[in-house]
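Bench notes, afternoon.
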Amino acid sequence: MSEQIGKVYLVGAGPGDIAYLTLRAQKLLTQAEVLVYDALVDTQLLQLVPPACRQFNVGKRGGRPSNSQANINQLLVEQCQQGKKVVRLKSGDPFIFGRAASEIQALIAAGCTFEVVPGISSALAAPLLASIPLSDPVLSKCFAVLSAHQPSELDWEGLVRIDTLVFLMGGRNLEEIVRCLRRHGLSKKTPVAVIRACGRLQQQLWIGTLADIVEQTAGISLSPAVIVIGEVVGLHHYLQSPEFEEGVTGVIGLEDNVQPDKLTYGNGFGVKASILKGKTILVTRSAGQSSKFAQLLQDEGARVIEMPALVIGPPSNWEGLDNAINCLSDFDWLILTSTNGVDYFFERLWQQGKDTRALAAIKIAVVGRKTAASLKEHNLQPDFIPSNFVADSLIAEFPETIAGKKVLFPRVETGGREVLVKEMHTQGAIVTEVAAYESRCPEQMVSAAQQALEQQEVDVITFASSKTVKNFVRLVEISLQWQQPLSQLEGICIASIGPQTSITCRQLLGRVDIEAGEYTLEGLTQGIIGWAAQSHRTKEMP
């Protein structure tokens, strides 16, 4: 067997949002064995890599300890020589101030194969997303892209003769840029645009002139920013979509009879967005779970970061479930309270050579629409489902007297709620509990979630079970060393799917800001939409 040959892909991540990632870059991320990424890479992109992919954050942040370029070069060489498929993910384009040349030279010297994958540079994307053309037959016959990291090294006398200037890495040096251009003869009336966080939900835009742009942005952290200087900036006013007026923020057309899930608002960039536009939502869920919930939130405009907080697997042994399946005819009712319970129960049923005909004489009760939908995949309909989708209502609304009934309850092996079983026993049911699956806490928090929490990007955290709350607290203590998560989460909305999850949120996180009216993911989505609508109403009040 031949030794695996490694390869390094220097990939441009584009300006931010995953929507601007190239198809080639997306494919490589889904196949990566090692990911080495920069600080400005959007956390959404980190969710594309396989769970087993090793991730290295080598971003350079001003004022903080950073990896040296030599160390980054060595890391790429080492991982490639181990036979790994390495994706070196760079913000924008690798060859636009991306220091790719140094890394390529190190790879060549070590005999490592590599490929460079272009990305959309923020130098081009930011003006476009702000409705500013870099070229114009009259106003801009040429433009220059510059790094403003060290303004003293630039040829200002020559730059003032170029129609349009685009500065990258200039947020901290805006005042010096303005001073140098004015000193070398550029008119104080020259238009200036500052585009912060282009291509992201947090994008902001300031339009001014060399006379007032520094005052407009005083006291604001502009990084990462693209600065455009030239007469073409004035075209911004004429090239926006007519759907919104200049500078519109907040809710448009918010009337008393408008339903929150139908609201849209303007963000001042000529873009129509749903009510959750601009919100980053951290969704805690089971590892490997296909998240319909994430899609519901994304459809409403939210940026979603999924954080596995449960790892679902088989129980420590199958003896109890196997014995129960061998004597299904002895039971009156089968109770299933989760999709995991459905999946593992039927997996063991098939492995014992049985099919749904073995359930002909037993009635089935389920909790929740998702559980019912999972049961339907096996061509079965539940005989009973409580109205408000919580296990406690199953006994309260049970369709027949449960006393004396033999009930089979496949459930999580440890940590499940005991209220349902206790109430069934109290009412005289003969309950057989069997372990069908186990859930545990992941060993560490995924990089995308960790980075978003560290950089204070999260607006809402959602919880769909008490276990996800408990495991979230454990993960932030392990991965972020947060010993007091209550204070660290100040300003972040805590959203719960139902009463029992809310109790755990209050116990461990100190509060609940949203509780779903209907205890489903759709209900939780509507709760978040209503919260966002109310937030906009509050901001718009004089």
